[in-house]
Amino acid sequence: MCVLTEQMGETPKEFKLKNGPTDGISAVKFGPNSSQFLLVSSWDSTVRLYDVISNNMRMQYNHSVPVLDCAFHDAVHAYSGGLDNNLKMFDFNTGTGTNVGTHDNAIRCVEFCSEVNVIVTGSWDATVKLWDPRTPCSAGSFSQPDKVYTLSVCGDKLLVGTAGRRVLVWDLRNMGYVQQKRESSLKYQTRCIRSFPNKQGYVLSSIEGRVAVEYLDPSPEIQKKKYAFKCHRIKENGRENIYPVNAIAFHNVHNTFASGGSDGFVNIWDGFNKKRLCQFHR
Amino acid sequence: MSEAPGSASEWELSKENIQPLRQGRKFASLSAALKPHDGDEWSKIKEEKQLFEEELRTYSGDDPLDVWHRYIVWTEQTYLKGGKDGSLSVLLEKCLAQFQKVEKYKNDERYIDCWIKYANCCIEPQTIFVFMYDQNIGSQWACFYESWAWHLEQLGNFQRANSILQEGISREAQPLERLKRNYGEFQMRVARVMVSSEVPDTSEEVEVQRSALGHLKTTGKRSHVSSDRVNSLKAASQGGLGTKGKPLHQQRGQMFQVFNDENQAPVHSLPPQTGEWQSLPQRSVINKENDQKPGAWTKARVPQKSGVVPFHAVGGQSQPTFSVLEEDNPDLHIFTPRKVGDIGSQVLSARKPGKQMDPLLHVRMAVPSNSEPQPMYCKEKIYAGTGEFSFEELRAARWRKKMEMQVLETEQKEMKRLREELEQQKKMISEQSEMIKRQREQLQLDHEKMILEYQQQSQIRQIELDRKNNSQIQQQQEVLERSIDSHLQQQINSQTSFQVMQDTPSSNLNSRYYAVCVRITYCIPFDSTQKGLSNGTINRLK
Prior knowledge:
- The structure holds two protein chains of two kinds.
- By secondary structure, chain A is mainly beta.
- Chain A has one helix at about 220-225, and strands at about 5, 15, 25-30, 35-40, 45-50, 55-60, 65-75, 75-80, 85-90, 95-100, 105-115, 120-125, 125-130, 135-145, 150-155, 155-160, 165-170, 175-185, 190-195, 200-205, 210-215, 225-230, 235, 240, 245-250, 255-260, 265-270, 275-280.
- The model of chain B is unreliable at about 1-5, about 200-205, about 235-250, about 340-345, about 355-370, about 515-520 and about 520-540 (pLDDT under 50).
């Protein structure tokens, strides 16, 4: 289930992590400072911490139900949420987990914003909640127009993608009002939003084989640069099969990003130069 | 009770905002829906809606219409403004489109109910009914004919309404009794309308309208027609369209005969069921020309035909086929050059069937076509109902269902196990009771046997005892008798009988013996002999 690719000098370029989850994987997150640790949440109700360099599983903790997302707070603290509506904090040093708070429906996304030092969760109950990791306790609940499907932190901004193809831009320093209300430039359901590491814009992928590159600056000359492209489509017997684009991940230095589709491929793109860099095999 | 008047007054305050329903509204859902949209009640409504949406996507039984119909009825009850805020018409449209090809639902009452609801929220319900009739949907149900006739009645088309109700009766639509009753009521209503409208009819007769294609009465030598066209028409009205029955005269000044098709069926009769109307008459299709998306007007361009005609070419070609009126004044001889094409060669091209010609395309989503790109995911599940679901939600719903099933299964297993245990215990208990019963019977038997034995033994013992006693008594009697005899003989012989007494082999002593002895001693007159006798008996006793 869990195939990880890793670019390294001497070790093989690609290997499979041992002791993978027993059901589908809902999220994978690298640790905040290095690429040594990888946090994996899964539909088998577990959250696992892997040491990628030595290829072993360091830790594992359980929810009672499938976990939909997880995030590192710092190197030793992880947050995760899933179908049980609970946000769970786990301390890898002590090996203890605590329930931080709840939503009214399943928690779909968990993110950590280091600039404001706050944990953000988005749920199908159409709210986004902020959590203070120091106490840890709730720091506010903010209603969204529809079920939250994806979240991305962009500096001190928060991008929320909801059902009904809406995109909302919040300022985490001032959550009193929505900074921008947008509609997705793609025709079908939003699957994933990830912001550029340079904080200028974001990439949005849809359920029907398209990825849009958009900019946060509302001025017309910047907005002119936005574009969308087709991807994750396979031609078969003269007919084009279109697959959902489920995941996007940025390289935190080069501003290039990877997109993962239901066709089983991972593509690497250069968003600024509108080029596909490479494609991983299935 | 304290809450009831509050909610009643709430209802009273917002009566205008509630669209009445034919079947009425439930008070509970009404008061819930009237609550402010951020309270608990509202979140409950949202939750219920979510549940319905989830059920639409996870239903796996053989009656999928059931979920749809419940959802539609619920939406109608919960959203007060005719379901528009709950996007009832979208829901109905999707439901109808989904089951249009399903044969078993064609005359399902719930499906017909959906159709009628859809017709009610359409701008032109007639189209829907005609479509239903054409597709033979609901032709067995009275409610179909009733609602169709009702709509026609609202429009004042009594004749057509009448023929529709008659059609329903002739097809024996169910329930027939109700249909007939409704038909009777309809006839009564029509009669009442006719009677009440007779007075305005007579006044209308006075104000005769001027009709087209009539002949006007002329006056004077120059055959002028007066300005009062209506009244001048009256005299010559036999030439107009009003006199259908009479043969038309070729009158002076009338250059053509108005064709009167006598074979044409009357307008109000039902068209034949052709079944060729394939697509659902959705509003977006019927009103396509009027539903233009808003856009910037400054950028709007009329599409030009390819090939720009140069101005001089237009001027050279402009030879009209009719003679152009030439003014006498040559100074004013300026005419606009215009292009007049060949009239015969410009045939109106048929409108090319665009993508939108199939209205089900965006409803059914997956139309199998070889050239169309095909989405490789369960699109119908993502966009079922009025909202959208993500893959994770679908998977979560499936997971929850599985969990429920598992819980149910384990419960059932537990129940089964408990039942088996109980059964076993019951069996054990019954076995034990049987054993106990058997033991008891055994005991009873034993008891009886013992009693019998005991009785026998006691009888035997008694008999033995009796016999023994008897023999002893006899012996003793014999001995006594003998001793008496010897005593008597001794007495007779005048000798003491001690010797004899001591020699008697009496082993058992009893009262008789004493009695005999006493009797004997009394018989002995000497003191010394008495003393000697008593000593002797005591010795014997020891």
